[in-house]
Design brief:
By secondary structure, the chain is α+β, with helices and mostly antiparallel strands. It folds into 2 domains: 127 residues, Beta-Lactamase; 164 residues, Reverse transcriptase/Diguanylate cyclase domain (Alpha-Beta Plaits, 2-Layer Sandwich), CATH 3.30.70.270. The chain is 48% helix and 23% strand. Helix 8 packs across helix 9. It is elongated and about 100 Å long. Bound molecules: guanosine-5'-triphosphate.
């Protein structure tokens, strides 16, 4: 019977040694007592250099030789003191470790009541690559869902969401907000004269031009068709007018080169202003009314919504 146990224990040791997963046992005072080949391979050091060493010394060697686990720290001692707080903080811990050579391992630490610890490592490089591809893919999908395909600026959905978040913040702080509706003049005749593709190119170039004149934290998006929205926070009436007028002027002065034609484009801008609680719908309606006035009083102009005169 005893022989049979011994036989099975030997078999287990044999399998553990041949396993692709790493196994190691650390003593209660963190000395590496034994480890199989797969574990030693993670650290790139021969058995003789690791067995009998303290965990801290093994990690110091990894840091110094830049082999084994990637240690993103300037100072190994402060890194070690952080890690030591985590080690044995629970009976069982699972965490991912990336190696300097680009491989990824899932580590598990199982601590016995007397402080001895069994460390297991599993190569998860393939899963990590798939995970990274999936993350990248879903980031791209999220970007696509938020971006207007033609102009590569925010689409209506993401523009409205950003503006609503900013309205909430500004209303709380009672800071001035300005909302512009910007519309290309006689855009239909551009399509009719030069074709729809030329019209698309005008939209792209105008979006680029407007974007380059705005500040990084101004919110800019394509609301639909040839209509764009801009939201400025922490803004006075005078600043809003100045920005809109500068935009109008820059567009009017720019010559666009579209499919062999030189085009002069103008825009009309309707502005709504607010200081206290408001909504996207309210700002949009007010700016739209102002834009209507701008169109009907000759185009290529900026009009502030009537009720905003006092703001
Ligand atoms: N090329 C192109 N045209 C578009 C797009 N979206 C909307 N349009 C066109 O934009 C034109 C808008 O025309 P209108 O609303 O009559 O306005 P307008 O000709 O710009 O005249 P005003 O706004 O009154 O100055 C329509 O002919 C739409 O077909 C687009 O993505 N690409």
């Amino acid at each position: 019977m005893e022989n049979s146990f011994k036989h099975h224990a030997d078999k287990l040791a044999e399998f553990a040694d041949a396993s692709r997963d790493g196994y190691a046992i650390f003593s209660a005072d963190d000395i590496l007592l034994c480890a199989n080949k797969a574990f030693l391979e993670v650290f790139y050091h021969p058995e003789a250099e690791l067995i009998g060493k303290r965990f801290a010394d093994i990690m110091r060697t990894a840091f110094r030789t830049r082999k084994g686990p990637r240690i993103d720290a300037d100072n190994i001692d402060s890194w070690l003191s952080r890690v030591q707080q985590l080690r044995r903080s629970r009976d069982f811990r699972l965490f991912e470790v990336d190696l300097v050579d680009g491989r990824w391992f899932l580590f598990s630490e199982q601590t016995l009541p007397d402080g001895e610890m069994l460390l297991q490592t599993k190569d998860i490089t393939k899963q990590k690559i798939v995970e990274q591809h999936l993350n990248e893919h879903s980031r791209k999908l999220a970007d696509l869902a938020l971006t207007d395909e033609l102009t590569q600026i925010a689409n209506r959905r993401s523009f409205v969401a950003s503006v609503q978040a900013e309205i909430t913040r500004c209303s709380r702080l009672h800071c001035g907000m300005a909302f512009f509706l910007l519309d290309i003049d006689h855009f239909k005749s551009i399509n009719d004269t030069y074709g729809h593709q030329a019209g698309d190119e005008v939209l792209r170039q105008i979006a680029r031009l407007v974007k380059s004149t705005l500040r990084e934290y101004d919110i800019f998006g394509r609301i639909g068709g040839e209509e764009f929205g801009i939201f400025l926070s922490e803004t006075t009436r005078a600043t809003a007018l100045e920005v809109a007028e500068r935009l109008r002027q820059q567009v009017a002065e720019e010559t666009l080169y579209i499919e062999g034609n030189t085009l002069g484009i103008t825009i009309s801008v309707g502005i709504a202003l607010a200081r206290d609680k408001t909504s996207f719908e309210q700002l949009y309606a007010d700016a739209d009314a102002a834009l209507y006035q701008a169109k009907h009083s000759g185009r290529n102009r900026v009009v502030v919504a009537e009720y905003c005169v006092i703001l």
